[in-house]
Amino acid sequence: MEPQLAQKIAELWDREQIRQCLHRYARGVDRFDREMILSAFHPDCLDEHGKFVGTPEEFVNWALAMHEGAHLSHQHCLLNHTAEIAGDTAHAETYFLFVSMNRKGKPVTIGGGRYIDRLEKRAGDWRIAARVTLRDWSLTDEIADMSDLTSFTSTRALLSLSEKAFMNAGRGPARNAGDPSYDRPLVVDPARREAFRRLNEKA
């Protein structure tokens, strides 16, 4: 096999493994499959996910409890996907459509955003090493305040003032190169995790 062809095949396999990693995450959350969700992350990953910032284990505990308490059912549908691969590191942007049937408030919530990920291949295994989740839109009854990052979350009606303040101190989407999707490398500030811990200690 020609070296150039072998390189192209290896890149296609890397891209397929990255795609499968992201799909495992989405399916795992919708099926409440703890091990499947964790299989998408390296253990030392930090995930900044709206009103949550923490490790994969902490995320699973938070996400499954949140979805169980707020939703009767939900789907995370993955759409546009790009990945820039450099050796054993990749930076990916994956659009998502989130739909939930809710226990309270509006019967159905629909919104969209993006998973911004730094993935690393360790021992031949591609997993997420850092993630920032961005919400870009949601069906609302009035024109949204784009500077309020809590406007687009499906559980916005349940947020406390302190949770809203925490979310709005985090990173949001931008229609320019200040968007987190341009960060190289993508890094989640550990101080945000500590702020999340303090927030929950007060709750």
Describe the structure.
The structure is a single chain. The protein is α+β, with helices and mostly antiparallel strands and 203 residues long. It has a single domain (3-202), classed as Nuclear Transport Factor 2, Chain: A. It is built from 5 helices and 6 strands; from the N terminus they run ααββαββββαα. A hairpin with a 5-residue loop joins strand 4 (89-102) and strand 5. The termini are far apart. The mean pLDDT is 95.
List keywords for this structure.
203 residues; alpha+beta; globular
Helix content: 25-40%
Number of domains: 1
CATH class: Alpha Beta
The SSE order reads HHEEHEEEEHH
Number of helices: 5
What strand line-up does the widest sheet have? 2-1-6-5-4-3
Catalogue the unreliable spans: none
The rounded distance between the terminal residues' Cα atoms is: 61 Å
**Which architecture per CATH?**
Roll
Number of strand segments: 6
Structural class: alpha+beta
Shape: globular
Strand content: 25-35%
CATH domain fold name: Nuclear Transport Factor 2, Chain: A
